[in-house]
Every structure is written in C-alpha cells, then in structure tokens.
Amino acid sequence: MKLRRSVLVGVTVASILSLSGTALASTTQPPARAGSLASSASLAGSGAQNSAIHPTSIRFLVFDHMLAAGGTVHVRGQVASQVDGVRGALAGVQVKLYRQFNKSSPWVYLATQTTGNGQFPQFNFSTLARMNADYKIVFAGNDLFLPSENITWLSVYRLFNGAINDGQTAATLHGNVDPFYNHKVIYLQKRACAPCGYVTVKKSTTGMAGAYSFTLPAPATGRWWWRVTIPGTGAFIPSKGGTFSTARV
Fold first, then answer.
1. Rounded CA gap, 120 and 91, in Å?
2. Residues 166-217: pLDDT tens digits?
C-alpha cells in the first residue's frame, strides 16, 4: 500500500518518493517512485517534529561518463531524504550545477533547476562536453532539510574526422583531430589479422587545425586494418579514430 502524506517546506510543497535501499544509491539504480512525507498539519501540531532538520543527499541517476568532445552531457539525479521512516526524493526544491575542468581550478556555476513534481521528482541538466570535467550538484537546504552536494565526473575524447582515399598502390588516410590538437604527435596503428592486436607502425605530427595524413599499403593477400591514435592530456583522455582496412582487388 502506498503511503501518501505531504510537508510544507517554506512556501513549497515537497513530496518525497519511496526509495529501495540507501538514499545514497548508485548511478545505475532507477529513480525513486511516488510516495510522500509528513503533513504540514502534523508538523504544526508537534514541536519536536516541527523543529526537526532532516539530512539529505544528492543521488545521481544513469549517467554517461564518457563522451566525444562537443557531445551533450546529461546530469540527472534526485535530492534524497527521509522523514518518519519514509525515504524518497524531494520535489519542488532548487538545485545548482557547477563544473570544474581540473582539480586545481575553481568551480564554475552553470545553471539552476527546480526538481519536478511528478511521480519521479528529479533534476536533469544538459550542457556541452568540452573537456574532462567534474560536475557538482548543490542543494542549499531549507527550514526542514539540510544542505547537501555530490560530485560526478565526465571523460571526453577527441574526434578524428577520418576518411580514406583509394590509390593504385596504396590508400591515404587523412582527417583532422578536433579540438585543440595542432602540431602534436599522432600515431598510426596496424592490425595484420582479424584476431591480432594493434601495433604502432608510424608516428607523425599534426598540422594546422589538427590535420594528419598517412599512406596505407595493402597486403599481397588478405586484409590489413588501420587506425590513428593520440595520447591523453589533462583536458582529454587517450583517443582512437575509426578503423579502416586495405586489401588488393
């Protein structure tokens, strides 16, 4: 049976959804379902309840921790709490999103949202994946619920925009690494058979706008597979381009 009660939080009615397990749930668990907390009338009638301050926690929902540069980051989650044994997610409360590009830089404010009032109260921020970053959600708290915050992370890889052109004796693999990869090292890797691992066979330096080009020979029989790769930096993780193959026809 579903318990339904409500609590007045300042001028905002905060409903709470029943959770399974701990309020500090993992990012792979589903959002909390409908339910709610103690009524404002019962709080007004009890001095002990009225003065209670309830702990909260930020609970992240499913989150893609790896994206291509320029992709869309979705930071989803809930503000979890517990009142009179009922555990769930606060609705109608304000949370803020911050981003930090490296551990030594300051946190930068990005946006504010109010959690929803539906069956699954949650926040859902969208922003661009620019570089490796940490994202922080902050709930400032109110008269009945204590403040809380939590941090999640995102790894970002570069794009190669690769293409291959056929030739009489060899093919040419070319493209440009994006973003921010001018005059830096790039490696060509080869796989000589389907079950074989990749081996680095050439090294080059990108040009303006991250441009690169490699000549790809083909075996006398069978097929060879190729890809380009670059090392990681503080801003981007190690990145690999798409796979191309060469064969004689």
1. 8
2. 877 789 999 999 999 999 999 999 999 989 999 999 999 999 999 999 999 9
Tokens linked to 40: 């404002």
DSSP letters spanning 151-209: EEEEEEE-B---EEE--SSEEEEEEE-BSS-SS-EEEEEEESSTTPPPEEEEEEE--GG
Can you tell me the distance from the alpha carbon of 79 to that of 71, in angstroms, rounded to the nearest whole number? 26
7 sits in the region (left: phi over 0; alpha: psi -120 to 50; else beta) called beta
Among left, alpha and beta (phi > 0; psi -120 to 50; other), residue 135 is beta
How far apart (Å, rounded) are the C-alpha atoms in residues 100 and 113? 19
Q: What share of the chain is helix, strand, coil (3-state, %, to 5)?
A: 5, 45, 50
Tell me which of 2.60.40.1740, 2.60.40.10, 3.90.380.10, 3.60.15.10 is the CATH number of domain 7-157.
2.60.40.10
| pLDDT tens digit sequence for 73-116 | 999 999 999 988 889 999 999 999 999 998 888 999 999 999 99
Q: What is the pTM of this model?
A: 0.77
CB atoms within 10 A of CB 89: 31
Q: Which of 166, 127, 229 is nearest to 136 (CA)?
A: 127
| Equal fold, 7-157 vs 163-246 | yes
φ and ψ of 59, to 5 deg: -115, 110
Structure tokens that stand for 19 in this block: 């959770």
Q: Which residues neighbour 50 within 8 Å (Cβ) at sequence distance 6 or greater? A: 43, 44
